[in-house]
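Per your request, structure below.
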């Protein structure tokens, strides 16, 4: 069950005291800026201090730069927790009163940015091995009392309205780190498997899915009366920028196939767009897709690669984002780590479509394959029974479809017949058909919605929290 942002340790932010007056930035701020530019190479990330497995930094002077999470004042010291986004935890900085800028420190508020130089020492307190004893503290940027992230519970829905600030919360910061790790693991996996990375176009004239739910790209006048038309009253796109109808891509698959049929194995990883008027927690108008294409491959090869990929990226996230996943396991999905371990260790179940309909649901990843041809896309290869296609979906608990893939139809005659059946013009896809006309080979591929993968690995329920700036019907802020 998802929790409200702000109800976990380190997420509930304390009320900010009155804003600092003169002297809080001034010369100290200028010095901090100088230290933060020319001295950037010497900056020590909080993660290097808080997640060190040994003590190489003990007794060393470090420069820590980040944002204030909490501050406690005592008689001769102030204790300030600083977080720089590199990990879940913040580092405790002990600031003695004899620090020259202590008057500015006393007025520090939650959200202020600071630059601290000090020595790493063993911490006598609970919860951390090390802390920093400050020698110099500079306030880089003050944070006034109207800072939205105050000491109260903030729902994820509220945070979507301040998407520019929500990365400062534990949940969204952790999502961002996991997302980054998954992206890095994606490139690592395909490189190790011998795939080439292809940057497919965002503007296209092709509808890969044949659904017609595409965003149009045009420079024609916005005033209807000035739009050029043909004799039948339809829009004259010959006068548009590209000379024909153009759209934001719904998939990089067709471009991927062109290169797979020349270079062997390729993958694309980029933004895609669907003009679906859907307000569900699983759909976005703009989302990222991972789409590999493999030559000389069939549906079994497709499923083998997809399973290996998911296991690889999940393993990588568990290895490098341990504290973030523990946070999600504690506050969002108490079975998360157990579920991810199952995905990592156990073979995926594979079942034919009809058996899937007849059997109970599994509690692990399941490949469902050989779907009825009438409900799948035109480019999927017909099976010998004439009723099904060589298509598969990977279904995972809590998310549903994570991957959709198929063996592509490599036979020209069958492909052109299906285009007509799907009300597509073979002439518009002449270049796609050329792949079958000149040295055609069996090939297969799949698409994985990256935000759904992020949701699955983190346990976050709403896909709008798995991307920095979600785009959905009626929402294109920031």
């Amino acid at each position: 069950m998802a929790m409200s942002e702000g109800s976990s340790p380190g997420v509930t932010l304390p009320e900010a005291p009155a804003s600092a007056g003169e002297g809080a930035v001034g010369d100290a701020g200028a010095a901090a800026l100088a230290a933060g530019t020319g001295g950037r190479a010497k900056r020590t990330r909080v993660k290097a201090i808080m997640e060190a497995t040994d003590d190489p930094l003990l007794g060393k002077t470090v420069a820590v730069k980040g944002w204030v999470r909490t501050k406690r004042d005592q008689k001769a010291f102030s204790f300030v927790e600083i977080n720089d986004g590199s990990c879940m935890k913040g580092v405790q900085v002990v600031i003695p009163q004899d620090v020259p800028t202590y008057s500015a420190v006393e007025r520090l508020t939650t959200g202020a940015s600071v630059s601290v130089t000090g020595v790493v020492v063993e911490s006598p307190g609970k919860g951390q091995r090390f802390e920093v004893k400050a020698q110099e503290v500079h306030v880089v940027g003050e944070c006034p009392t109207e800072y939205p992230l105050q000491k109260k519970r903030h729902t994820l829905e509220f945070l979507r309205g301040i998407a520019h600030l929500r990365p400062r919360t534990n949940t969204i910061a952790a999502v961002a780190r996991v997302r980054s790790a998954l992206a890095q693991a994606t490139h690592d996996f395909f490189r190790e498997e011998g795939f080439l990375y292809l940057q497919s176009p965002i503007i296209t004239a092709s509808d890969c899915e044949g659904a017609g739910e595409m965003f149009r790209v045009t420079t024609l006048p916005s005033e209807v009366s000035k739009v050029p038309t043909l004799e039948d009253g339809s829009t004259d796109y010959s006068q548009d920028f590209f000379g024909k109808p153009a759209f934001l891509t719904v998939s990089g698959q067709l471009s991927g196939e062109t290169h797979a049929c020349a270079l062997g194995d390729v993958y694309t990883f980029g933004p895609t767009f669907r003009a679906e008027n859907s307000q569900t927690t699983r759909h976005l108008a703009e989302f990222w897709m991972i789409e590999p294409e493999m030559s000389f491959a069939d549906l079994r090869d497709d499923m083998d690669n997809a399973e290996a990929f998911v296991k690889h990226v999940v393993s990588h996230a568990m290895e490098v984002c341990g504290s973030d996943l523990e946070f999600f396991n504690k506050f969002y999905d108490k079975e998360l780590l157990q579920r991810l371990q199952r995905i990592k260790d156990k073979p995926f179940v594979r079942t034919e479509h009809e058996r899937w309909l007849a059997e109970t649901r599994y509690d692990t990843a399941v490949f469902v394959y050989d779907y009825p041809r009438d409900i799948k896309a035109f480019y999927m290869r017909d099976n010998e029974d004439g009723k099904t296609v060589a298509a598969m979906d990977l279904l995972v608990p809590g998310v549903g479809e994570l991957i959709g893939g198929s063996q592509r139809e490599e036979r020209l005659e069958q492909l052109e017949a299906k285009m007509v059946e799907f009300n597509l013009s073979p002439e518009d896809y002449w270049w796609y058909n050329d792949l079958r006309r000149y040295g055609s080979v069996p090939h297969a591929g799949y698409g994985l919605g990256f935000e759904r993968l992020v949701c699955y690995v983190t346990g976050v329920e709403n896909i709008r929290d798995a991307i920095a700036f979600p785009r959905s019907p009626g929402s294109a802020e920031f």
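The chain has two domains: 26-146, 166-214+250-465.

Regards,
D.
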